[in-house]
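Consider this pair:
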Amino acid sequence: MEITALDLRGREVIPALAEIYPQLCLTPGEEGAALYKDIVLSGAEPPGRSVSHFAGSDGDSCRSESTPAGSVAVITLCRRSDFELFLQIMACRCLPTPIPRTQGAATLDGVNNWTRIRAHKEEFLRTAGPDADWDAEFRRFTADRNNFKDVMIVLSVGPYSAVPAEKLGLSEPDWLAASQVIRRTHECVHFLCRRLFPERIDPVFDELVADTAGLYAAFGRFDPATAELFLGASASGYTGGRLENYVQGPDKRRERLDELAAQVSRMLRRFEEISAPRVGIGPYELAIRLEEEWECWKQH
C-alpha cells in the first residue's frame, strides 16, 4: 500500500495507518522498543492490533500533497497527545522521548513499509512460480530504498511555533487556520528542498526558507518580523524562540545565539526583498528562488 494513495478523514486515520505500520499498535517503553525492532526490521507482527492508546479525532486526516519534487503524505493529528505518541513510536523507536512543545510538525523519511514488500513478494511468486528464489529477489528489491521506504509529514494542530494569537493581532480561529497552512507548507518545503538541493543542508537556513514560504502561503506576503518572532531573532540579538534549538552546548551559547540571531535577521530582510515583487507565485516556487541565496548565507 502506497501511503500517498491514501485519502483518510477522522477516526479512521490511525487504524488505517496501523494496517501499514503495525508498530503503531505498540506503546512506548522498554517492552515496546524491543518489539519495535522486530516489527520494523523483520516485518514481525505485533502482539495485538489495538490502537486504543490513541484518542483519535474527527479532525484527523491523511492526504497527499503535490510538490515540484513529487508527492508526499501529510498526516494531521488534532490531539497533541496523539501527535506526541505518534512521534515517540515512529520517530523515537517507541521510546517515551519528550517532544518539545514548540515542535508542531515532523518529517519522517525512510520508514519501512512491509506491506509494499509483501505485495511485491506475492506478485513475484505469482509470476515467477512458487519455487522462485524469493531471498535473492528480496535483496534486489530492497537494494533500492524507494521500493519500500516511505516519507510522511506529521502535523499537530495549534498555534504555530507556540506563538499566541494576540502577539500577531489575530483572532484565535484565524491564527489557528493560518498556523496549519504555515505548518503544512513549512514541512513540505523541507521535503522539496531535501530532494532538489541535497547538497544544501543547514538547519537554520532550512528553517528560514520553510518559514518564509509558510508565511507567504498563509498570508499572501512575507513579513520578516513575524518570522523573527517564531525564531526569537532580532538585529540586536536573541529574544527567545526556536533558534536555540540549533545551537548546541553551553560554551558561549548566549554569544553564539546573539550572533546567529543577527545573521538570521539580515537574511530575513533579504528574503523580504526577494518575495515582495513575486506576489502571485506559489510558495514552492518562492522556496526554490530563496534557495539561490544559499551561498550568501554561507559567506556570513
Remarks:
- The two ends are 46 Å apart (CA to CA).
- The chain has eleven helices and seven strands.
